[in-house]
Design brief:
The chain has 274 residues and is of the alpha+beta class. It has five helices and 15 strands. The N and C termini lie far apart (41 Å). 44% of the residues are buried.
Length: 274
């Protein structure tokens, strides 16, 4: 398992969550979108009957949802993380993707571009809450693209297939090298923070492609990152709104912060901040 992860930069963990936990997370998604767990910044002023479809992605659901918090600690996932990262592991971010029909994907990117660790230990765990297929907008990866340990240049993009996030470009791979990662609900794609990946729109006639994407890193590394309410990330010495999921925290003496609040990611229908 670890050899293929080191070579390819990703692996699929079958049955990362049991079916009842997937069901509970779907219920939590509805509660979050309805506002039952408190406000979601940037969410719709007037929730519609079909409120799930008003969201593309809600950042930091674990701050208000016990189910999202429990998923950070899922035993099979934590076992894989300690094998990949080391004995001491912390989480700093969760993202709940709803992605109903017609909603966009996210252009080529590397997660360490947005969440900079000091030791390149950022690791994403993308858990499918519905079967993720090419048609409904599964992840696509460029296998082995993490190995150079280089972060590529970024630029704004107006491609209607993607949300407002910048795209990375000028890397030595083409779209033809990309591999789709179709996984059943409950399975997880675990990938390196330097792996180039993207997703395409949900092109089904009707259906949700829900997923919970959690981010982890070694507890030894400081995290010069801070989320502010707008969802923009700005530099800070060491972000301490973290959740330890394995081992011990060498910086426990600093205490913890409570900074992040759930907020909605913009898609182009909402207008991008430029
Ligand atoms: O779920 C998606 O559509 C995109 C997820 C992604 O790119 C990420 O979590 O970094």
């Amino acid at each position: 398992m670890i050899e293929s992860y080191q070579r390819d930069g990703f692996l699929v963990l079958d049955q990362a969550l049991p079916p009842e936990q997937v069901t509970a997370l779907r219920t939590a998604a509805e509660q979050l979108c309805r506002g039952d767990l408190g406000p979601v910044e940037g969410g719709p002023a007037e929730p519609a009957d079909d409120v799930l479809r008003q969201y593309l992605c809600i950042h930091q659901p674990h701050k208000v949802s016990d189910e999202a918090l429990a998923a950070l600690h899922a035993p099979r996932i934590v076992d894989a993380l300690t094998a990949i990262i080391g004995p001491n592991v912390k989480a700093m971010q969760s993202m709940l993707f709803i992605k109903s029909e017609g909603k966009p994907g996210q252009a080529w990117h590397q997660d360490e571009f947005f969440i900079p660790t000091r030791d390149r230990s950022l690791t994403a765990v993308w858990i499918a809450l519905d079967d993720a297929t090419i048609e409904n907008g599964c992840l696509w990866v460029l296998p082995g693209s993490h190995r150079r340990g280089v972060l590529y240049p970024d630029r704004e993009q107006d491609d209607p297939r993607f949300d407002c996030t910048v795209e990375l470009f000028d890397f030595p791979y083409s779209d033809d090298d990309a591999v789709p990662v179709e996984v059943p609900a409950g399975s997880a794609v675990i990938f390196n923070g330097y792996l180039l990946h993207r997703s395409l729109p949900n092109t089904t006639r009707r259906g949700l492609r829900r997923a919970l994407a959690n981010h982890y890193m070694s507890a030894e590394s400081l995290l010069p990152w801070q989320t502010v309410p707008s969802g923009v990330h700005v530099g800070k010495h060491d972000y301490r709104d973290i959740v330890m999921v394995a081992g011990t925290d060498p910086y426990a003496y600093k205490g913890l912060d409570d900074l992040a609040r759930p907020h909605s990611r913009r898609d182009k229908d909402g207008g991008c901040d430029r």
